[in-house]
Amino acid sequence: MDYVEEVFDRVRLQNPAQPEFHQAVREVLTTLRPVIARDEERYRREALLERMTTPERVILFRVPWVDDRGQVQVNNGFRVQFNSAIGPYKGGLRFHPSVNLGVIKFLGFEQVFKNALTGLPIGGGKGGADFDPKGKSDREVMAFCQSFMTELYRHIGADTDVPAGDIGVGGREIGYLYGQYKRIRGTYEGVLTGKGLTYGGSLARTEATGYGLLYLTEEMLKSNGKTLAGLTVAVSGAGNVATYAIQKAWQLGAKPVTCSDSTGWIYDPEGIDVATLKQVKEVRRARLTEYAAQRPGAEYHPGKGVWTVKCDVALPCATQNELGLEDAKALVANGCFAVAEGANMPTTLEATKYFQDHGILFCPGKAANAGGVATSALEMSQNSQRLSWTFQEVDSRLQGIMVNIFHMLDDAAKEYGMAGDYVAGANIAGFRKVAQAMEAQGIV
Ligand code: NDP
């Protein structure tokens, strides 16, 4: 058995019932084979892959809080500090009922490589809770956030671990979390990113993941002789990433025609109206049926099905494993020729393989959605300097970072004889940077 397979077996045995974590490790290790093969004995002796697939620290905690009826509720809180070889742990907090240790470990593992690709000094971590902010009052969300931070504060800090938002954690939640941290610690420091603009947030952070996704997609298309202008784009999700992906798609001359949430999806042949989408999702926190009610030309479909729409480019921006093999077949049959992941691991391994086998340009989330964390790192820089940069300055740095990421993947894939395989390129480029830093720092 080769070293990669040995490590994968070990991961499966030591982390039972964590399928998302196994899937993420499998995808990364498989594509690293050619790199490992060049130096297998050294990596094996150093147990480099065992160390890379084992988090430095896992924190599990109880989060008790009182709901509006006076009932005590208890949720599970998590923070996985995966790898700090190249900087303080950095990665979002997810509040969603589907959160468990395996999900947070998969996200933390992916984050290590993603953060390395940004070229900025940030390690990888992830956290969250199985708390659902949907349907909760503001007071309940605040009570939960305060209780969550009352434990988390002792494990984080501007130079140790800097969480951000993710699914279910937007500006409101970051505000409550930050307020509680400041109250307990008594310091005003950049311990969270995604903060409001009046208390240390960065301009363009809200837009960064969606915008970055489109900057990278445009660069991928350009280097393959195409451009977004005039293309039809299918987007899933209706949250932070999807909304700003849709906005930037319009700005680059494409027409985004779909969006979705966990109950249904919209097909708007005129193109998704960003103002209506924001009003429904960001302001009223309502379902997409309300979007359809306001746009007579738009169709609302309950359940899944967003990938059956005819498009040139598909941008999955909702959640993990939302695009399976049948979806991939439908997209290819309908003429889709490029896919870039706004969400983390939205495409199953089978669907990814199908895209690659059919010559579809495919960029994985750890590269395509890295604009969010990159801009978070820019927020950290501004907090350290006690300065705020303009929207244009942050946005143009973001654009430079995304273009650079694409060329890192492209070059790494070519170097190992896998031109056009951006999954392998992303894993190899991220791995090499983290591996070098880990080796330089000894057995820690
Ligand atoms: P939001 O909470 O803002 O939006 C998530 C969207 O996905 C919502 O429309 C939600 O629908 C939908 N969704 C969530 N879970 C499911 C599900 N199980 N099935 C179908 N739809 C679902 O999150 P973000 O936009 O911030 O994040 C989306 C993805 O992007 C995640 O994978 C996240 O990890 C990733 N990401 C986010 C970054 C960021 O900066 N925000 C950075 C990098 C990656 P509903 O409203 O019905 O729940």
Percentage of residues in strands: 5-15%
Q: Into which percent range does the helicity of residues fall?
A: 40-55%
According to CATH, the fold-level topology of the largest domain is Rossmann fold
Q: Name the average pLDDT.
A: 97
Task: Find the count of extended strands (DSSP E, 2+ residues).
Answer: 13
The class by helix and strand makeup works out as alpha/beta
Based on CA atoms alone, the radius of gyration comes out at 21 Å
Largest pleated sheet: 5 strands, mixed
Distance between the termini: 27 Å
In terms of per-residue confidence, which ranges show pLDDT below 50 for 5 or more consecutive residues? none
Give the number of domains: 3
Bound molecules: NADPH dihydro-nicotinamide-adenine-dinucleotide phosphate
The helix/strand series, from N terminus to C terminus, equals HHHHEEEHEHEHHEHEEEHHEEHEHEHHHH
Which strand order does the major sheet show? Answer: 1-2-4-3-5
Core attributes:
444 residues, alpha/beta, Rossmann fold, 3 domains, five-stranded mixed beta sheet, five-stranded parallel beta sheet, 17 helices, 49% helix, 15% strand, globular, binds NADPH dihydro-nicotinamide-adenine-dinucleotide phosphate
